Amino acid sequence: MLRQYELVERVKDYDPDADEALINRAYVFSVQKHGSQKRASGDPYFSHPIEVAGLMTDLKMDVETIITALLHDTVEDTLTTIEEIERMFGPKVAEMVDGVTKLSKIEAQTENERAAENLRKFLLAMSNDLRVLLVKLADRLHNMRTLHFISSADKRKRIARETMDIFAPLAERVGMYEYMREMQMLAFRELEPEAYSTIVGRLDQIKAHGENQVETIAESLKTELGTHGLVADVSGREKHPYSIWRKMAERHVSFEQMTDIIAFRVLVDSIDDCYAALGHIHRKWKMIPGRFKDYISTPKRNGYRSLHTAIIHGRSMRVEIQIRTHDMHRQSEFGLAAHWAYKQGSSRPDGQAGWIRDLIEILDTAQDADELLEHTRMAMYQDRIFAFTPKGALHQLPKGATAVDFAYAVHTNLGNQAVGVLVNGRNVPLRTALSNGDIVEILKSEGQEPQTSWLGFVTTGKARAAIRRYVRDKEREETAAMGRVIFDEIAGRLPVKIGKKALKQALERLEMEDETDLMVAIGTNQITDHDLMDALVPGSSSDLVAQREFPRQDRAISIRGLTPGVAFQLAECCHPVPGDRIVGLRRQGEHIEVHTIDCLNLVSGVDADWIDLSWESDSEGATARIRAILYNRPGTLADMAGIFSHHKANIVNLKLTNRDQPFHTYESDLEVHDVGHLMQIIMALRASESVARADRI
């Protein structure tokens, strides 16, 4: 543990003008407040914030950050208040301490809810001052270094999983690769102990059999560059165990098949020297195709710059090489912290960096804890590609990102209105995965809306959050519209006309905020007809029952203008289409399920309220299912497809369900206008020489 004078000396070494008295006061304050508290290791608790402050001095952080590190646990773990910290150390330190402070555990909540709330508060604080993130990362790193002292295996795994899912990706996103690598290694050791020990054992064997291998390759690289007049620092190391394990999983190979477990770093003086060194290395040794990446011309989103390549050295020895300047190396090790060092002054980075704005947008749209954690983890993971707009604007996305993800990365409204995409001038589906260097032009229409099917292929948290928010808002809007129609029908059964005053009083009796909440509750059957009547006119439902004059629904409720799958679901068992006589099943907390009146599932009895529904005369468009038995001879399937095409019915799904010698049975899902359109298709199938039988199912 750092002594008081040692901490001060560390800060004074890089910042001679630092406020020594303020650091001393914070050190003493932390020791006094934590008092006799102990950590799981048995060490005094105050050793933890002091070690975190020491990590901040390694990054050459300013005095405010050092003091925040010293005080970051005092509010949660002692009787100290934010007001006390503000009075003694100023408002900025108080704000940062409040941002870093962990939330007290609320045992009534689930683990995900606690993690989500902690993450929510942390991200909001981080958006105001990124130094909060730096202290939090150091706090987590030191906790991971002492994780083995915690006796509960479940608790250790929970902390390790949170570190792997949240904090290591955050460290990568701000370019702090040393923090990221150590966090991943420590978490990996806890989560996969057998894999960790196996890989470490194999690495030790490699070292034992080839002690000078790394030094030999490094020296050959340095000599080759020196012969061309380039002065370079060359160092090599084995990749850390988690990196090797992840690549084994990605490539589906064993450790013995891994040929690039050694990486070398070449540091030169200038960007020109970087490219010169790359050329000399490629001329001397064979380059492995597909492994070259230029992060100097297109830096990573966190500012990381370097040239990456892989070569075959000596006798089939594959090695990875990173080439960068000394300044780039400092940036790659310390990332964001390099910009926050005491000497940077007014050139400190904008606290509202683009990726943080994305995270804050996700905070605003997440519906629950699971969704927040899912979207945030997606937004922070690290493997990325680069794609361009037609005007040359660069956007970075995760590997596997689609055109829809790109559209939302440009602007939420563009994503919502996307109808098509041109990738490198070619028209491709919206679900197309993008590649590095693609030029992407999104085609939009004001009449377009996000599709729920997009959730099946988007990869970014921002896109997923925006789609879910839009679908959720539309679902609420249409469910409320359906509820309004049902409300009018129920209110019509009452002996008096319902006005605004009665509706307002009903909301108070039902303890609801507004009319929309009431209509949504009616549309999803969260309130019974009797309860609604009694709320509108107290005692009315019991009076009607006593008089045996309880009128039922006397007119069909229109579903015109509502979207299937949003306010209601078309039943899969009978596939109703416009023109069919339909009824709705209203279950608590669910969408209304629409069936044809002759659906066999209704005969068996269902636990739900029935409501009479109608399509309206101009309703059109639904998916019908047809079963057709074709003769087993060449061309019959083409004949059936030709009939569908002639009648302008789009095939949504086609499945061969049965095959015997003379016949093949197919089930086809078709988009049709109405029941008349469907019957035309069935009659045409029955008239065909290729079709033995055709029926609607």
Automatic annotation (TrEMBL):
It comes from the Bacteria. Coiled coil: none annotated. Residues 625-697 form the ACT domain. Residues 383-444 form the TGS domain. It is an enzyme of class 2 (transferase). Belongs to the relA/spoT family. This is GTP pyrophosphokinase rsh. It comes from Blastomonas aquatica.
